[in-house]
């Protein structure tokens, strides 16, 4: 039967029912302590999984960035030597703005043109962070550490064939490298821990 009681803003129809206060309270309740603890445990587990992966990604990005920069510098030096028909050298950074090579690749490197006549000039400078990956040179074959990589006017290597190895806190298993051959060919390794030839294992100091 339809309700005939007059309905206003402040009244309730006699045939309707007022919601129970207990039900409203149950619908509006918050988290219990147990539920909150479960959520916190799940978040802690997820962070425990994600943080090591993020750290690995960060280390890989730094290594790859160093290798990419060095690879570009070497190719730039070779192409400049070919274009200008004059020797161009990539070597460890000595003093800032200077054309004199240093002895420690960890400081960074410079690209220097060395014309037969005239003054040497720095074409490019890369400075490495003290907290980043390390960089060392190893001769391909036998010999001592290489501190100069020079391309002649034909684009050929006029110094010792070199393996440049980048390492971080993970050691040899994660190392990356660039090989510079007598023909002037420059090749970066694709497999961590291995040289570009795919057979030579890399060693970190």
From TrEMBL:
The General secretion pathway GspH domain, residue ranges: 68-184
GO BP annotation list: protein secretion by the type II secretion system
Assigned keywords, A-Z: Cell inner membrane, Cell membrane, Membrane, Methylation, Transmembrane, Transmembrane helix
Presence of the UniProt keyword Magnesium in the record: no
UniProt-listed Gene3D superfamilies: minor pseudopilin epsh domain (3.55.40.10)
Family: Belongs to the GSP H family.
Protein name: Type II secretion system protein H
Source organism: Metallibacterium scheffleri
């Amino acid at each position: 039967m339809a309700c005939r009681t007059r309905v206003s803003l402040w009244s309730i129809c006699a045939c309707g029912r007022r919601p129970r206060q207990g039900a409203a309270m149950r619908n509006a309740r918050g988290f219990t302590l147990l539920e909150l603890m479960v959520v916190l445990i799940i978040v802690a587990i997820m962070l425990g999984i994600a943080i090591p992966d993020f750290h690995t990604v960060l280390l890989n990005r730094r290594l790859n960035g160093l290798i990419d920069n060095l690879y570009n510098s070497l190719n730039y030096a070779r192409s400049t030597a070919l274009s200008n028909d004059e020797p161009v050298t990539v070597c460890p950074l000595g003093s800032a703005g200077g054309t004199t090579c240093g002895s420690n690749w960890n400081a960074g490197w410079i690209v220097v043109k060395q014309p037969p006549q005239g003054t040497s000039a720095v074409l490019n400078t890369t400075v490495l962070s003290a907290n980043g990956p390390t960089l060392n040179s190893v001769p391909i074959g036998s010999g001592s550490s290489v501190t100069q990589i020079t391309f002649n006017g034909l684009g050929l290597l006029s110094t010792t064939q070199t393996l440049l190895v980048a390492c971080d806190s993970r050691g040899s298993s994660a190392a990356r490298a660039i090989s510079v051959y007598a023909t002037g060919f420059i090749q970066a390794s694709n497999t961590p821990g291995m040289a570009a030839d795919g057979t030579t294992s890399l060693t970190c100091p």
